[in-house]
Specification:
The chain contains five helices and no strands. With 142 residues, the chain is an all-alpha fold. It has one domain.
């Protein structure tokens, strides 16, 4: 199961790199435009999702590879997914037309409240990974 734990690390690292590329597009040599676009928001959200999934895969196959998930670990998984959905809804609110800036401007805007909601969603998703890691059954004594 060591290979799957390493796969989780690779997925998490890819997520971190995508998040950095989305937050700071100039590190890739792309000249950032005015404001923030849909590709940039999707890159950030995809990076967040890969980072969380990589963390869940790593914890599962490093600490609990031979045991099924208990109820509290399943709650941690669902908490992670709920945080990702919240971050996705907040990040894409103006692009989908239900954000506070949607009717007022022609160019979608990622406002302060939306950015705060993305961070809150990511924090909730991170708490889900932490719940999954901390509430598993202890290893059996051999």
């Amino acid at each position: 199961m060591l290979g799957l734990a390493q796969f989780g690390i690779a997925v998490g690292a890819l997520g971190a790199v995508l998040t950095i590329m989305g937050l700071f597009p100039s590190v890739t040599g792309i000249r950032p435009g005015e404001g923030i676009g849909i590709v940039q928001v999707m890159t950030i959200l995809t990076g967040f999702a890969l980072l969380i999934f990589g963390g869940l895969i790593y914890v599962k196959y490093t600490f609990y590879a031979d045991r099924p998930a208990n109820l509290s670990q399943q709650i941690g998984i669902r908490l992670s997914l709920t945080g990702l959905v919240l971050a996705g809804m907040a990040g894409l609110a103006d692009f989908l037309g239900f954000g506070s800036h949607a009717p007022a401007v022609t160019q979608p805007v990622l406002g302060y409240w939306q950015a705060a909601a993305i961070l809150i969603g990511f924090f909730i998703a991170s708490l889900g990974v932490l719940v999954y890691a901390m509430t598993g059954a202890p290893p059996a004594d051999d």
